[in-house]
Amino acid sequence: MGYVLKKINVLMFVSNTNKKSGVATVIMNYYSNVYEAVHMDFIYFEDLDTNNYNDQIRKYGGRIYKFPSPFKFIDFRKQLKDFCSEHYKEYDIFHYHFPFLGVFFIDISKLLGRCVVISHAHATKFGECLISNLRNGVAAKLSVNVPDYYFACSKKAGVHNFGNRFNSDKGYVVNNAIQLKHFVFSAENRDSARDELGMQDKFVVGHIGNFTPQKNHIFIIDVFNEILKRNRKAELLLIGDGYLRACIKEKTEKLGIASNVHFTGVRNDVGRLLSGMDLFLFPSLFEGLGIALIEAQTNGLPCLVSDVIPEEAKICNCIELSLNKSAKEWSEVALRDVHRESDAYDLVKNAGFDLDIESTKLVDIYRKCIKDRGESNAI
Q1: Whether residue 296 has pLDDT greater than 80
Q2: Angle, helices 22-34/291-298, rounded to nearest 10 degrees
C-alpha cells in the first residue's frame, strides 16, 4: 500500500463568506479543487446578504463560525480564546486574509497549539479612504512579525503589505486562479448573450466589479459617455453590485445615457456575458491583482486598463493608460480596431492562472510551510 498523506486542517479568517467578495471567491475556487487534501473551517464577522458560500463550504465538510467584529476588541478576543480552547491542536494552519488584522492574532499560534500562521494580502491599499488607509497601514506594520509565512495575489501586493519580508523564502505569490474553461470565448455564447440583452448589432463595452470607489465606476461612465458620442451603437454592460450602484445609475440618467447602460447585478454566467462583449474596461484606482481582468483576457477580449494594475495581471491584449488621461483620451483608444486574442486560453494558462495546476501548488506550499515550521503533525 502507498503512503497516504494526512489531510491538512486549515482555519480561515475572512470578513465574510459572501459571493460578492473577491477574497471569498478566490478561497472557494481553491477549496473546490483541494477539499480532498485540505479541510477548511471559516471564521467570519459580517453578513452582507444571503448570497454566500456557506452551503458550498458545508458540502466540502467545512464548518462556519460567526464572530463579533475584531474592532469590538473585548468581545472578539473573548470568543477567540474560547474557540481556541475548544479547538486546541485541531488546526495545522491559521490563514488570515487581512494583513492589518494581525495585531489581533499575535498569540494565535500558541492559543491553537503551535499551528503555522499565514497572512494573505489581496490589495495594494490598506483602505479605500484616507483615514482607513492610514490606520490600517500602521496596523499592518505592527502586524508584520505575527505570521510565519506571507502570501499575496501579486508581488506588488506582497511588498506593499509585508515589505522586504515578502521577498524572502517566507513569501509566496498565490495566484488568483480560475477555472479557465468557464471563460473561453464561444460564438454560441456570444449570440445568446447579445440576444438576451438586445445587443446583436451593438458595440458592447463591459466591466465586472463591485460598485465601490476602487473600481472607479464614475470614470467608466465618463469614458463610455465619450465613446457613445463617437459610436451611437455603443452599449455598456456593468456586472456586479454594491453600495454605489444607485449613485452610478443616477449619473447615467443625468447624462441622458441610461438607456445605453445595463446593470446586470451579480451573475453566475460571467463567461457567457464576456463572450457577448467587444471591449473590457478596467480603470481601477488600485488592484491587488484583478481577477475580473484575468477572466476577460481568458475570453480574448481587448482590455483597456489603468496603469496601476500589477504586471502579473496583464497577460495578453491589454492596453494600459494613465488615470491622468481624460475620459475623451480613453474613449479614443477604446475605439481603435482591436480584435480578440485567439491564443488567449494558452497564454493565461501559461501565466499561472489555471486553477487545476495552481491548486496542486497551494497544497504543496501548505505542506512545505508545515514541514519547515516543524510544529505540526499534518505531514
Answers
A1: yes
A2: 60
